[in-house]
Amino acid sequence: MKSRILYTCMLVGVFLRSSVGQNTAPEAVLNCCEGYVLFLLDSSGSISSYEYSRMLSFLSELLLPFSLGKGQVRIGLLQVGTQPRLEFGFDAHNTQTSLQRALGNTKALRGDTNTEEALRMAKDWVLRPDGAGEPRSKLPRVLVWVTDGVKPGDVIGPMENLREEGVAVLVVSTGHGNYQVLRQVVTPPVESHLYFVDIDDMSIITEDLRNAMIEILRADRLQVRDISTDSAVLQWRPVLAGLNGYYEIRFGPVSSTSGGGGRPGTSPSTSGGQYQRLIESKDSSTARLTGLMPDTTYTATLTPESNLQVLKPISVTFNTKPDVLSPAVVTVSESEANSVRVSWGPLQLESVQRFQVEYSALPGGKLHTAAVGRGQNSTVLSNLQPDTQYLVTVIAQHYSGREKAMSVKVCTEEVRPALADLQLTTVGSNSLQVDWKASVDSLRGYWLTWEGQDGHGSTTAPRSSLYLPPNSLSTRLTHMPPATRVCVSPVYRTARGEGLCCTAKFNSDALAWGQRS
């Protein structure tokens, strides 16, 4: 008889060990979530050993499907007793095997139910927004309080402080807790964040509580990148990794007017506009949307389809870029008397067949044409007339058959010949005859300056100036200092031309001479 009892116990022991082993590897790993979850576990003297073991089993089953670690879900366990203790923090476990082993080795604290001190630790240390290594305020933070509800203490104020800092509070009560108190501490909605359950029936709330956590921790990361005029790339978190299923993507333009419930072939998410549908494999995390219209607002909806998990669709709205055909900008540089450089952009090698530049003098000049390869974004126009305004047009011929032209006006530089010659002749003891030679074409006049100098070239008298009309080729200056430097520059429409300077010195022997300098 004893041997039969012993044999039976051995079988039961083997069965229990096998059951625990099965919980170390989940059938499907939830890759849907990211954030911090701190469990506030009541392990005071009011919790029996049996109740405590049931609570740990509940946590083990609840957390089994989640992916753990950086970029996933971080789990912490804070036990409530006379002296609350952080059993393990958020960085302790990055795998389910490690977490499940830690839960199996956790021992109750016993003693009083010092929930107030535990909440202070949670607020000031464990769940603070600026956690070590990374700011936690950017990710969801969740506090799950598992208690029998016996003598919880003054928890309303501390829980309110946590909620004000962005922490979502969920409560599981296994005893006869005060409903009015507990409903005040949880984050709305109460119906999905507050649970009353018998200690032997905790498994019936596992899925509901897990879904409530997922709703908070869910990483809705449907992002749009590489947006162009007619395409965009969707990128999402691979929430179906480890599951069977696929992704359905629907996208279409947002209607400018509000639509109804959607017509056949339309999607309500696009306000009645035509939509397209894509199917991507469960291992995909990106999809290229093509055939889009330029400068249009689109809505894209990603729906993960799986027979193992119910995952809600997520949506994103984005705008395609305007249809900018080259040339979008034309600029002018290196302008000279007979040439100018014209530049344009963008090149758009994928769509432009060739460029053509047309130019003519204004008004009514002869039209000239220059063909330019599609790989060039500038050309030099030569053999132009000086000081002339031109109309320059850059034309892009696209493979699609479309043609885009943009024009700009440009002025060539005027020719400004230098002064050809300058002669100074002394007249008497203090007068100078100034004679010069210059091209009279396009001249607007002459600018004369003179100043007295000593024998070393330093100025001894203030500089004087005089403007003369274009038909003047000489002038006489009187009351000059013994040594005088004279400069003459031709004046044109846009600027002065290059001039000449001479220095004259008065003495009794010199009658006529000029010294250039």
Automatic annotation (TrEMBL):
SMART domains (UniProt xref): FN3, VWA
Keyword Secreted: yes
Subcellular location: Secreted, Extracellular space, Extracellular matrix, Basement membrane
PANTHER family: COLLAGEN ALPHA (PTHR24020), VON WILLEBRAND FACTOR A DOMAIN-CONTAINING PROTEIN 1 (PTHR24020:SF77)
Protein name: von Willebrand factor A domain-containing protein 1
Record-annotated Fibronectin type-III domain positions: 218-323, 326-418
CDD domains per the UniProt record, alphabetical: FN3, vWFA_subfamily_ECM
Keyword Disulfide bond: yes
Signal sequence segment: 1-21
Region (Disordered): 254-274
Pfam families on file: fn3 (PF00041), VWA (PF00092)
Domain VWFA: 36-213
A single cellular component GO annotation: basement membrane
Function: Promotes matrix assembly. Involved in the organization of skeletal muscles and in the formation of neuromuscular junctions.
Superkingdom assignment: Eukaryota
